[in-house]
Amino acid sequence: MPVLRWGLALAFLLCLWTAFALPALGIILAIRRPPALPDGLGVPVDGRIGASRLERVGADAAGPGLWHLHLDGSPAQIGWAHGALAGHLTARIEDDLLAKLPVIAPSFLLRHALLGSIGLLTRSLATEVRSDEHIALAAGAAAMVAFHDHHRRILPHYSRSLQYHALHDFSHLLIDHPLLRLPNIGCTAVAVRGSASADGHLLVGRLFDFEGGTAFDDDKVVMTVRPEQGLAYVSVAWAGMSGAVTGMNAAGLWVSINAADTRRTRLCGRPIVLAAREILSTCRTISEAEAVLRASPVFVSAAVVVASRSDDRAVVIEVGPSGCALRAMADDRLVVANHFDAAAWDGDAVNAQRRREGTSTRRAGRAATLLTRDGQTAADLLALLRDRRGPAGEDLGFGNRGTINAWIGAHLVVADVSAGVLWVCEPAHGLGRALAFTVDGPLASPPLPAHADLAVEAAQARSWAAARDAVRRHLAAGEAPAATELADLLTGNPRHYEAHWLAGLAERDPAKRRRHLDAALSLQPAYPAEARRIASDLAATPATAEAGR
Question: What pLDDT was estimated at residue 97?
Answer without folding.
Answer: 78
